[in-house]
Amino acid sequence: MYNFVIWIIVSMCLLFLLNRSSSGAPILRKITMDDICLQKIQISGPTLASLIQRVSSSDGDVDGLLFGRVTQIIPSTLSDDSSANTTSSDEPTLVATLTSFFTSTTTSTFYSPSGHLHTPALNDLIFKCTSNSSSDDRLIGWFSARRKTHLRPSLRETTVTASLQSKISPCIFFLLTTPFHDQLIHTHEYKAFQFRSSTHSFDPKTIDVVNLGPAFRGHYGNFTPNSPFPDLPFEVKGLNSESMVEDQEGKKENQQFGSLCHDDDFKIGRLKNLMGSGAATYTAELEELYNNMLNKVNGLAKLVEQSSARVLEQENHNMKLRYKVAGFE
Amino acid sequence: MAVDSIPPIILTQLNYLLNHSPHSIKVEQMWSGSKNPSLLDRFTLVIPFCLDYIKWDVIYNAQFPLLAPDIIFGPEDENFRPYPVGKEGDLMPKNSLSDWNYKDPTRLLSLIHELRSLYMVYQKKRVSEVDDERLKFEISTMYSREGIEMHMSSGVDKPEEVKLAVPLLEMDLNKMVAGSSWRHQQKIYLQVIYPVSRKYLAVTSAPRLKLISSPELKDLFSIDEFRLPPWLEGMCMAEYLPTLEEMLESQIRDAVSSIEVRRKFITALAVPFGRPLEADPVFCRKATFLACSGVFTFLVHFTLPLQFPRQQPALTLQSSQHFHSHPGKPIKSAILQDYPWSPRWDVAQMAERIFDYLVEECLNFKKHCNEVLVQQR
Q1: How far apart are CA A145 and CA B61, in angstroms?
Q2: Which of A212, A235, B101, B135 is most buried, by the most CB atoms less than 10 A from its CB?
Q3: Is there a single domain that holds both residue A246 and residue A153?
Q4: pLDDT bucket at A82, cuts 50 / 70 / 90
Q5: Pick from B7, B36, B83: which is nearest to A326 by CB?
Q6: Do residue A60 and residue A114 come from a single domain?
Q7: Which residues does UniProt assign to the signal peptide (chain B) (predicted)?
Q8: Which residue does chain B place closest to A320, by CA atoms?
Q9: What are the CA-CA distances from residue B76 to residues A80, A200, B80, B368 (Å)?
Q10: A329: nearest CA in chain B?
């Protein structure tokens, strides 16, 4: 009888523990590995969208590096059955998460024509891409985008991936193409592979696009989006810096705005003036602030427009030079 | 810039490949991979291999035509890795891509040629890995033969088969025909297809055999009329091939000597008809003479069959004076093949008899021509 009671207590404790681990969040942990099979590849909606945008806006083929991390998820498949329990815990589930990418305007920036890595160039690129970002994301693969081609790795892509695999593991290859016929509904095709060193072959992987929204709440909780704010060459604090503002209102407005923001110590706290008796006089002040802000945004937009015109001009010039070299003239 | 133009650097390399390849490689389609689709920079090459074709896509970059091209192999050849991948710092053997030079027009040809040879080695390796005793034996007996191409076909919905292309006859066919204008080396192959049987069977099925020749050879010898010797039960290739080659060789020698018979016949025709306007001097399969009956002038086209003189020549008459009104083409007779003939006559008599026949027949043809003209009014 006594033994029986102890047995019940022990089994209830066990059940409690099992339930806890299955309902709780999966445990994420960074690991290093040799040739371990990825379960899937995750990419956030914005990262994928910006990758596709980059590809479709380019004149020709592009390729580049992929950054991200590999995490181990201890699957919540624990059950009361002790035999099943032991087998599942031995195989950790690995998920690769693509967080950012780097591409230049051309292909072949970090490998030779035969597909062998050019290590100094690659290290240089990795350094440039990772030195600014605060996260510990690292190189986890590369991508290639070519219009109107078959969705399978080419001769050179295979060599590049295989040599990259000797540097990083696991190594992901992401391939983007467009369909051969324009009348199809879809405009892009993509496929992700993990290159396996053991079989020396491409292993197609499912791609999980992580988006915001109720349907994705579950795995969005486990997902850390990583989109560092671009390094803009002006100070957000000094909104009155001259280069930003080229509107007709000029300096006077600027100073006024600056004085609004800084001299009067414009703080969130002042917003409470909108309530109560002083509200009528205060709204005018606030409207002026908004007006100034709009002017600044306007000036910034003009600046962006002008600089993109200059970029386009330079690109056209470059293209003409390339055509000249290629013997078109 | 012209619409749908090929960057000159790419065009030079492609033209060199098409004109200088020992295999007759063709371009199936060409298209553009640029945002501005006027620059064609990718194409599919159709490359003959093992009496079949392999299709490889060559991907250039029109924006950067100085860069080396990339190749996408067929969907069945995902495991074809022509170039080894070494660890960093390993001394890699040079290949056609590693020292790419866009200024050299021969580079694309040497790349495709190199890849095709490596593909041959790859397919041979796949075939040698097939676990089939009979196949292993057959291949081992044929090792002394040079130039055998092999192909292992396997797919989801296709039966596993090993295809062999066995080149027959060591003699150089191009040299056997004096003055031949064949650009490619003429060759006859035996296509052998073995269904792969994984387990030992007491009765092995016979391989499927087919004789295939390079297409231009039909001017000299018709492969379709050659009857393959029967495949006896329990036979192996090493027994079969010598018999086949012996038969083929004697028939080809006959075909070559029959050129001379045809040449003599054409020379004999010159006695009643006068010198030919045009004659095929290499294979002597065609000759055209000018003839007249009164003021009616017409051409006589002779087409000599490979079985000449067993089979009589086909004649066509063509008027020099009567024309179809609309397309403006000269009026021709039907093919005349039903006139007195005996292979036992000597060539002079053959020519004489045809001449006599045409003296009568040309009147019918003249009547026909006039009828056509009347109808056209």
Answers
A1: 12
A2: B135
A3: no
A4: low
A5: B7
A6: yes
A7: none
A8: B63
A9: 46, 17, 9, 60
A10: B1
Q: How far is A260 from chain B (nearest CA, A)?
A: 49
Tokens describing residue B182: 């064949």
Q: Kindly state whether residues A266 and A173 are assigned to the same domain.
A: no
A117 to chain B: which residues are within 8 Å by CB? 88
Q: State how far residue A157 is from chain B, nearest Cα, in angstroms.
A: 8
Q: Is residue A319 part of a domain?
A: yes
CB pairs under 8 A between A and B: 114
Partner residue facing B34 (CB), from A59, A180, A328: A59
- Contact indicator for A115, B67 with CB cutoff of 8 Å: no
Q: Which of A189, A220, A251 is the last residue of a domain?
A: A220
3-class state of residue A185 by DSSP: coil
A-side interface with B, Cβ within 8 Å?
A: 57-61, 106-108, 112-117, 119, 146-150, 152-159, 162-163, 166-167, 180, 200-202, 319, 322-323, 325-328
Nearby residues of A290 by Cβ (< 8 Å), 6 or more positions away: none
What pLDDT does residue B258 have?
A: 86
Give the separation between CA B59 and CA B31, rounded to whole angstroms. Answer: 10
B115 half-sphere exposure, CB direction, 13 A CA radius: 26
Looking at the partner chain, which of B59, B65, B78 has a beta carbon nearest the beta carbon of A149?
B59
Taking contacts as CB-CB distances below 8 angstroms, the residues of chain B near A57 are 35
Q: What is the CATH number of the domain that holds A167?
A: 3.40.140.10
Residue A7 resides in a domain: no
- d(C-alpha A235, C-alpha A230), whole Å: 12
A294, A206: one domain: no
Q: What tens digit of pLDDT does each residue of B224-251 get?
A: 888 888 888 778 888 888 888 888 888 8
* Domain assignment present for A14: no
Q: Is residue A282 part of a domain?
A: yes
Find chain B residues with C-beta within 8 A of A319's C-beta: 63
Would you say residue A266 has pLDDT above 70? no
The token duo for B178 is 């004096």
Residue of B5, B28, B31, B63 to mutate for A, most A C-beta atoms under 10 A: B63
Using the beta-carbon criterion (under 8 Å), do B95 and A114 form an inter-chain contact? yes
Q: How many of the other CB atoms lie within 10 Å of CB of B356?
A: 13
| Domain span at A274 | 242-325
Considering the domain architecture, whether residues A198 and A255 belong to the same structural domain is answered as: no
Its ipTM equals 0.75
pLDDT digits (tens, 9 = 90+) for B80-110: 888 877 665 566 677 888 888 888 899 999 9
Contact A113 B67 (CB under 8 A): yes
| A322 contacts B63? CB cut-off 8 A | yes
- Give me B167's structure tokens: 């080149």
Return the structure tokens found at B292.
């007249």
Q: In this structure, are A49 and A194 located in the same domain?
A: yes
Which of A160, A185, A220 is the last residue before a domain boundary?
A: A220
Domain count across chain A: 2
Residue A30's DSSP bridge partners are A71
Contact call for A150 and B79, based on CB within 8 A:
no
How many angstroms separate the CA atoms of B342 and B149, rounded? 45
d(CA B348, CA A142): 79
Q: A185 and A247, same structural domain? A: no
Contact B78 A152 (CB under 8 A): yes
Same-domain pairing of A188 and A254: no
